[in-house]
Amino acid sequence: MPMLAEKFKVPDVLKDEHEELHAVLSRATREEGALGAAARTVASRLHPHFVKEEEFALPALALLSRLARGDVTPDMAEVLPLTEQLERELPGMLEDHRAIVAALEGLRSAANAAGRAEYVKFVDELVRHAQTEEVLQYPAAVLAGRYIRAQLGEGRR
């Protein structure tokens, strides 16, 4: 499946956002005491989730501009295994978000206690990022797969 994810690359704007969030979290994990410990807890939950997103949840989004123009080509069928995997794993992806947000609340508390407003802001940004994925990105990827399947006359696998 990684070969497909490479062919259908996660849009740079989404990949860049992941990298920016990861960079701030990485800095936080190097902090001392409760702040660093809370950040490491978030990182342990966030990293495997980001890997799954970039592997199968977000690559179909690279096709949205073409699909919106009505440009559907047979080679797009190759993305269907990714969108089908997202549909199967969506409940787990949402559970990941709940676990990440719970860990983020610990980071928020530690950041507030340490007077580190930049990490409180980071928590808010990461929570908003998860919400955007849940209400826009995941559904758009699923719909892209369903649309491609319908346009190409592909049966459900």
Task: List the main descriptive attributes of the protein structure presented here.
6 helices; 157 residues; elongated; mainly alpha; 80% helix
Description:
The protein is an all-alpha fold and 157 residues long. The chain has one domain (2-152). Helix content is 80%, strand content 0%. It has six helices and no strands. The protein has helices at residues 2-7, 12-29, 33-57, 64-68, 80-114, 117-152. Helix 2 runs antiparallel to helix 6 (117-152) and helix 5 (80-114) runs antiparallel to helix 6 (117-152). The relative contact order is 0.17. Mean pLDDT is 92; it is low at 1-5.
Topology of helices and strands:
Elements: H1 2-7, H2 12-29, H3 33-57, H4 64-68, H5 80-114, H6 117-152
Helix pairs in contact: 2-3, 2-6, 3-5, 5-6
- Mean of residue pLDDT values: 92
- Estimate what percentage of residues fall within beta strands: under 5%
Shape verdict: elongated
Structural class: mainly alpha
* Low-pLDDT segments: 1-5
Q: Termini, distance in Å?
A: 16 Å
Please summarize the sheet with the most strands.
none
What is the number of strand segments?
A: 0
Helical content, roughly?
Answer: over 70%
Domain count: the total is 1
Radius of gyration (Å): 18 Å
Quick structural gist:
This protein has 157 residues and is an all-alpha fold.
